Amino acid sequence: MTTHAATSPLAGTGRLHAFLRKLASVALTLLGLLALTFMIGRVMPLDPVLAIVGPDADQSTYDQVYQQLGLDQPLLMQFFYYLRDLMQGDLGVSILTGNAVAADIARVFPATLELASAAIVLGTLLGVPLGVYAATHQGKWQDQVVRVLSLIGYSMPVFWLGMMGLLVFYAWLDWVGGIGRVALSFDGLVERRTGLLLIDALLEGNWPAFRSALNHLVLPAAILGLNSMAYIARMTRSFMLAQLSQEYVLTARVKGLSETQVVWKHAFRNILVQLLTIVALAYGNLLEGAVLIETVFAWPGFGRYLTDGLLIGDMNAVMGSVLVIGLIFIGLNLLSDALYRVFDPRTR
C-alpha cells in the first residue's frame, strides 16, 4: 500500500509530461502546416491579383488590389497577417464563388465525407477478411488470388475505373445512378441538416430521395473502396503473417484450440492496434484523394472544389483546402493514438 502511494505522484507527473510533450508536438506540427500552406500560396505560378482583376485590368487597378491583398508587405508580415486571419476563422474569400472560403468548405465537405466514409467501410469490411484469409493460406492459390486482386485494386487508375464503371453499370446495365449525388428530380428537395444526403433524407423520411442518393453513391464509393481495400488487405496479410509465426500461436494450436479461435481470438487481436492506424491513414487518403473520382462523377465535394480553385488560380480556396487536408491528417493521427491507448493497455 505504501509503495502504491509513493509511486502515484510520480506516475501522475509522468502522464503530465507525456501530455505536455504531445501538446508541444501537435503545436509544432500545426505551425509547420500553417507555414507550408502559406508558402504554397506564395510559390505557386499563379498570380492571385490577375485572378481577381482579370488580364485586361490597367496597372493602377492591379497595384491597388496588390496592396489590398498585402502582397507589398514583407513575407514575414504577410505570414503574421495570415495567422491573424486564421485565428479569426477567416480563410479569405473565394474568387470562384464570391463566398467566404470557410463557408464554401463547410458546404462541400459533407459530400466528400459521405463518399469517403462509405468507401472506407467497404474497404475495411472486404480488405480485413481478405488479408486474414490470404495469410492463413500463405503460398497457396487462395493467397495468390488475393495478392493479385490487391495489386489490381492498388494499381488501376481511379479515373479510368470511374469512366468504365459509368459506361458499364450506368449506361449499359442501368444498375446504378449516374453523375451527381442524387437524381435531378430530387435535387434541392431534401432539407440540409447535416449535409450528409443519406442521413438528411432519412431524417426527413423522404425514401425516394434516399434510394436515389444511395443509388448514386454506390458506384463511386465502390471504386474508392476498391483502392482502400487493396491497401488494407495487403497490410492485414503482412501483419497476420508476422503474428502467425509467433510461438504463442503454436502453443494455442498445441492446446487444441480451433483454427478460428487461433486466428481471430489470438492473432487478429494482436494486430488490431496496427490496423487502426492503417484504416485511419486510408480514410485520410480518401478524404483528400477523392479529387479524380469527384471530377469523373461530378460529385459536388471537397476534391472538386479544390480542383476548380486550382484551375482558375483561386489561391484562397486552394490554401484553405490544403490547410483542411493537413488538419484532417493531424486529427486522424491523434485519434489513432487515442485508440491505441484504448485497445492496447501497454501504451497507457
UniProtKB/TrEMBL annotation:
Protein's cellular compartments: Cell membrane
Regions crossing the membrane: 23-41, 115-136, 148-173, 213-233, 275-299, 319-340
Main location group: membrane
Classification via CDD domains: TM_PBP2 (cd06261)
| Single GO MF descriptor | dipeptide transmembrane transporter activity
Keyword terms of this UniProt record: Cell membrane, Membrane, Transmembrane, Transmembrane helix, Transport
- Report the sequence similarity comment from the record: Belongs to the binding-protein-dependent transport system permease family.
What's the protein called, per UniProt?
Answer: ABC transporter permease
